Amino acid sequence: MTDRGKPLYMIGVVADMVKVHPQTLRFYEKKGLIHPSRTEGRTRMYSAEDVEEISRVLRLSRDLGVNLAGVEIIIKMRRRMLEMQKQIENLLELVREEGGGTRRAGGERQPREALVRAATGQLRPVDLF
Description:
Layout: E1 9-10, H1 11-18, H2 22-31, E2 37-38, E3 44-46, H3 48-63, H4 68-98, E4 101-103, E5 109-111
Antiparallel strand pairs: 1-3, 2-3, 4-5
């Protein structure tokens, strides 16, 4: 877990930070828009990443006028995009580690055939919201 993912804030503190009622945060959790951690006593604890996600939801709904059903779709699509981005990065790392070929008996590299050509400098993280 990164420092940004470490649960630090209780619901009242986060509600004050983003200027919403704590019940709004409970509702967002019930809808699956946010996923705070829980202590053993079931107290909600929010990380800096959670606060960013809440801000993203509020920006979509308040500033852009997207209803909660639309926000849910956008947030889920964003999560899927980030997961796919990680998969692509892992695949590129694997391809780089293998060096693009196999060794022949004399130690010389034999090129492999590829189904897809990977452009190393063209992949960048995307954050639209």
